[in-house]
């Protein structure tokens, strides 16, 4: 027998009992904020329920009072949690944008303004931007059409989907090799720029355009490449299906919000390839879950693996103006042991350790996965009056990126020290091995040392983030297998300041014999 729906709120999240696999809608002050599946977004909690953490995007703003209601659209169940006080309390919880419009948590976990909040004039402006984008692509000789959520809403309801947040178009390339598709996408972006449009590159085959207007409003439009390769149709960023070109050509039309726009020839086939066979049924909880082969193929061609990148970008974006300036104790410890030299820091975060080491006379090349982190790090270096620290992006999840960056570091910086704090327990095993591989590559010419510090205990419930458990003996074995000799190993409490001060820390120093 199914349990009735019950919900208990706290600062951590919601303890939901019953309806684990049903879509639930979370409303704050009568407005839809988030649609979720307790069994997917949560983890087993007390009394057979699921603890569903608050979406990361809203946590910094979750202070004040809100009327909280959770409903089950499928069963009609409704739980009124009443007036709930969060965080520091105070006034009402404010989840609006700078113009006062309510925000929702989108399928990617971001706070965005949904189409449901747009008035008729704003929808007309957005669709005019879509039309203009399609016209530019058409003038370039590319069959372009409405795609993804915009196409789905047009076919299903003849209007924009209420919970959707962005407009999407795609074009079918005549190119069949990924490299040629990438070059074409880059040329297209430059074409829009020459027309005076702002753009933002997202992946090698996907960019955003911002159609300019006299009133200064620039709606954002996603422009995706589609192409045929080896018997499959690819539509960026996540569709791979055994479909022929006649699914797209000749173009048809659909009408959305009274505006007629180009569409694929077989919209049903393309939407099924994108959203699955249940595409006709509205599902605000939908998340793209492409097969592993599709992710690896398109990731390798178009962007490399970007595991947890959004988490880190959001983490450091939220720290702007409030991140700590003092270095970690580990940085002082390494500086005392080494005395000087050239440091390659992996995972520099906000840059405080890199800045400190540079101030101690080290030559520092600091790298991080997140552009938000690197922006903070450059700001810290500027404040400290240090213009000698070199900051650069490094993706440990992409072996090709690691190999190229390692080779360049040997030729330019010639590191004698590789320094990584709180990185080992923040990446998966493949990325961890890439870190060790990178360290061996850059340190072998000098016979330098690898310095690692990380947490060794399992992350406590409720912490959030991508933290993983890495036993000290497992890391030692991986380092030794790569040819390092462990010179120092220390495990104990009190080594770490953050983000888990109570956890057991692990310090490892290893050297690689010089060639």
Could you explain how this protein is built, in words?
The protein is an alpha+beta fold and 515 residues long. The chain has 3 domains: 6-112, no CATH class; 115-303, Beta Polymerase, domain 2 (2-Layer Sandwich); 310-511, Rossmann fold, CATH 3.40.50.150. Helices cover 30% and strands 26% of the residues. The chain has 13 helices and 26 strands. Strands 11, 12, 13, 14, 15, 16 and 17 form a 7-stranded mixed β-sheet that branches. The chain has a 7-stranded mixed β-sheet with strand order 22-21-20-23-24-26-25, sandwiched between helices. A hairpin with a 2-residue loop joins strand 15 (221-229) and strand 16 (232-235). Helix 7 (309-318) runs parallel beside helix 10 and helix 11 (399-412) packs parallel to helix 12. The longest helix has 20 residues, at 120-139. The protein is globular. The model has no long low-confidence stretch (mean pLDDT 88).
